[in-house]
Amino acid sequence: MSHMHKSFTIDEHYLNSLPFPAIVVNQDGQAIIFGKPAEQLFGISATDIKGNTTPFINENLLRELSYETFQAILHTDESTYIDKVQVVTFTNEKITTALLAKPFIEQGEPYILLLFMLPELMINSVSNSGTLINLKQGLDNSFMTVTLDHDGFILECNAEFLKTSQWTPKRVIGKTFWQLFPDNEVSEKITNTIWRNLNNGHTWQGEVEKITKTGQSYWVLLTAIPTFSLETNEQQFMLIEKDITKSKTIQHQLEKIAYIDTETGLMNAHRLEKVISNMIEDERHFSFVYLSIDKFYTLKELHDQQIDQSLIVEFTNRIKMYFQDSTMARINENDFVVITPLSEWFIQGFLSYLQQHPIYSSNIAVPISISGGITRFPEDQTTFSQLMKASIATISNVREAGGDKIVSLSKATHKALNRKALIEKRLLQALDQKNLKVLYQPQIDVYSGKITAVEALVRWEDEVIGVVAPDELIPIAEETGLINNIGSFMLEKACEQALIWKKAGLDMKVSINSSVREFRDKNMAKSILEKLTKTGCPASLIQIEITEKFALEAEAASFITQQMRKLENEGISFILDDFGTGYGSFRYMQILPIDTLKIDKTFTSSLLKSEKTQKLMHGMVQLGKSMELKVVAEGVETAEQADLLITYGCDAIQGYYISKPATPEEIEALLVK
């Protein structure tokens, strides 16, 4: 072959340095150069291809690659990534792999470099830094690449990633893997799956939504690979990404236009929303039945390959047979909605129907479990959004109880859901308008009898909803992500007030409650210290109260602990709040920089009613004292409770016996008394 004697920029030595089997083909599809890994994989030597004019594309290796696709690759200026393609070796073995095809021109003639990116080779190939460099050199021009450390912090990234994500190296290095994705339930589920796979030594590949520095959404085809650095002797992870935003946008537009789920033939969520809106407008009564397949991905992994038709198609056929003449939709991969006038007992009978008409895999019935919710219009909810939210809440309740049931929520629960939705909406407006206020509940030091600290508590009285108590407000704020906004607001107010009291000669500490969600942001400690600098408040006047749930997560996440220690070093102290109500492990008390234990008010309230509670309370106080921690009891309402707690050794007490949460002026009046 005359082409063999050309002076290639990409030669055999280059192919051998790549971590994947690679070959170079000419415009006729004939192999020109084989790398050593390719010879081993495909069962042929370089000498065997000399003089062989048979095209390796279409007729040998890549029979599935059409002539049109090959020509398109040949005449493009960009690399082409094909997610799955079947390769037939010279020993007739069939291998499924990802393929990267990179066209180039040498001496005026077109060629294509083909890299066969087998997942197992990806894992092995990046086990040393030298190979990692070669891998990056081969991929940087075509892919975005990001390297993470074992905790998920970004160590480095390439120019392609920076260009698409709009980050600068200075700003993105040190961010976490999770901060590259939208803050919603779908992303949380996907990122947790990716992270679990990586930590188990497995690669993960799929389409995911990410966000730029400014919060703009974009889509990538992501391959996440576990690696190991011999330089640092630590686990690392590599993300290889291809921007597919354009094709995804077109796909979404087509889906919205078509309104049809292609796999099942059912309407999709976009179409369902329109149908529901029309039915609501016409005031038609109906039941909104939400059906979700439990443990779907596990079932699919175990059985989907053995079923003649896909698991979803078989399941859809049974929905169509049982709910005849009803409106049906597929919401996502494993969730369906049926709109029906049928009675509740008939809807619940679908579970029995599934048992009587099972889906078979290799002559064995697939054990399908369904969690379902029935929401009625207009009795329960009155908008499409409310119907969906109520259904998701129902599914969550059913799964917590073990799954495999179709149930309705009570009227009281629907009323609570409606209130929750209203709170979410109004809270956004309240934060914009700074319509929240802060009250302070004092603590008395039992030795001096003086108020030495106050706890800052958020209060919100909305003109539409009325008073929203913290016990109701905080969980909703955490769930919606607004807790960060509230936390920032509370910190600033606490700093300002602590400084006012200090200037007035009142050396009083102010404690604020913090959520673990806030500390998942690696810059939390920095933000707190910046707020202190901005307000001029000494760090020693601020205390941060954390829950046992927070402590348990901080124990497992070293970067949270590091942030806490950084704040402690600056003078901020930490209080373990609600002690005794959370998790049983005390290990975090050894690891975390906790200065104070605050025993939960549930124990205080039953202190005089139960001898067992008295012994338990006494034991908790002694535990704290033995660890040289300050012990505070909250929820103290009577002198009898206070006296008993003082005999146990409590350092401070807090509760209505001292004062309800009060304004700064009321606190100052108490100090005079």
TrEMBL record:
Residue ranges of domain PAC in the record: 204-256
Segments forming domain GGDEF: 284-411
NCBIfam families membership: sensory_box (TIGR00229)
Ranges of residues in domain EAL: 420-673
Domain of life, source organism: Bacteria
Name of the protein in question: EAL domain-containing protein
SUPFAM superfamilies for the chain: EAL domain-like, Nucleotide cyclase, PYP-like sensor domain (PAS domain)
